[in-house]
Structures are given as C-alpha cells and as structure tokens.
Amino acid sequence: MEKIWPSFNETLVRHGVKMGRQPTETLQINVGKFCNQACHHCHVEAGPKRTEMMEQKTMDRLLELLDGSPAIHIADITGGAPELNSHFRYLVGELKKRKKEVLDRCNLTVFFEKGQEDTAQFLREHRVKIIASLPCYSKANVDQQRGSGVFEKSIQALRRLNELGYGQPETGLELDLIYNPLGPFLPPSQKKLEIDYKRKLKEQFGIEFNRLYTIINMPIKRFLDSLKHAGNLEAYMRLLVNHFNPHTVTQVMCRNLISVGWDGQIYDCDFNQMLEIPMGGRKRTIWEIQSLDKLDSDTIACGDHCYGCTAGAGSSCGGSLI
Predict the structure, then answer these.
(1) Helix axes 150-163, 190-205, angle to 10 degrees
(2) What's this model's pTM, rounded to 2 decimal places?
(3) In terms of residue numbers, what domain contains 132?
(4) H helices of 39-189, where?
(5) pLDDT on residue 2
C-alpha cells in the first residue's frame, strides 16, 4: 500500500521539535524471544517456538559495561518471557549486587511453567519490581488477546504476588500492570483506567497493585500483520498521525534508554530492536564499544512507528508520557 501520511521526521520538523538523547538512566535487556505465550499484539513475535536466547557471556559483558556507567541505575529485563532464560536468576543476582533497580516484565502465566514454581519467591527475595501484562480486567478480553485460560492463571499469579507482599504500600514491593487496547485505537486516560482497574480487581478478586501503565499498540510485527489482514492499517496510521502530540517528544523513553538485544546488538528502544533499526544508523554490539556512556551522543533513529509513542498522551514502557 502506498504511504499517504508524512514521515515521522517530517512531522518533527513541521512542529519544530527534536528528539535528542539525554544521559542514559535505563538499560533495557531483552534476554530472549522464547515465551510460553504467543499474543496477537506481540511486537517481539515471541512464542514457544522461538529459540533466540541471551547467553551468560553476553550478560557478563553487559555487567562489565554497567560497572563503568554508574549513572545507569535501572535494569529493565524483558523478553519473551525473561524468566525462561536459564541465566535469568544469575543476571538478576549480579544486577542487585551492583545495587541496580531491577524491573521484570512478566506475563504472569510463566509462574505455572515447569521449573518456575519458586520464581515469584525469588523475585520477592531480590526485591525485583514486577511489571505485569494484564490487558483487561475481563476474562473474555484477556483470553481473546493472549490465549485461552490466560486470565484465570493471571489472576492466580496476582493473588500469589499479593500474598508475598507485592502491591502492598508498606512493603515497597512494586507491582505494576500494563494495559494495551484490544484493537486499532488509542487507550483511554491512564489515570481514569487505573481507578477502574483497582476497583474491579479489588472487588472481584481481592487483588491490589501499585500503578497501571497504558501502552499504545505499535504498528509493527504481529499487530501490523493483523492491521493489514483486517484492512485497518491506513485508518490506524491516520489515527496516530492525527493525534501526534509534540509535547510527548521530550518524554519518549529512547531519550534516556539503551536497548540491548539477546545477541548483544545495540538499539535506541525495544521497538527499533524488533525492526532491526540500529542506534545511530550503524550496527554495533556490546563487544565493539568501550563505554555505554559514549552512546549518549548518538542520534536517535526514528521511523513511522514512532507515531505510536507520540500519539495522544504518548506511550512508553512506563505508560503514558503526559
């Protein structure tokens, strides 16, 4: 289909805004694409048949680079299902030794996989912040997007986490949830939806959590395929383009985040990683650089998928931007 919308870079110029990098605070680490789920919206195209997995020697090189970059204080571990990497616990342990804040992007159902029976307890012992996927508080909607039986297992997992102290204000064990729309539309107000989530989950299941993040579905990979199949790509792109918000540009996650793939390749963000758009326009691995800090001067590689991060209230791995 012929593109009938302006490029993202053209839109930045028209609005007189720039996306320059700031000192890096977060290292996002994709430890592999293997997952026990195969969700329809997954921009990683993760699933049970994927074999890509970060090796321990890659983790060790990342740890070495982190030792030389004390300003990077957050380690955001993602996948796939990151817990299914056999070196996941090693990585978490080493990061905590370095007093980093560790985030685990968890799909919740992983706790019921063989060998993962004590994973929730491990996360608690290491005081890992959990960011869990729960795209709706409705069983029908969750199972439609993530697979049959996922909602029930997710509720069981959240109850277990609550029992361990997660989501309870006095414990400091943070449990945040992620909402993303079921179709080609923008999410509602994050603040208002969080109120609904907390009320529904508390009333119906006795579940508590800290914050809700709303994330816009990116027009890449599986979600892009579904848009094309349904004939909705043009309408969705028009929606994102028409709702471009210049005030989100200074808040996008790629300004102070470095994303590293399972194979050690370096990117501006998780979305660029999946599209294989390298940082600074040239492919580099963590073995080819001497310092993570020196990447702060690189330009941010943009594409039309960036409209997904800058539409409406904006979107990032940490939810709405404004």
Answers:
(1) 80
(2) 0.95
(3) 22-218+253-303
(4) 56-67, 88-97, 119-125, 139-146, 150-163
(5) 58
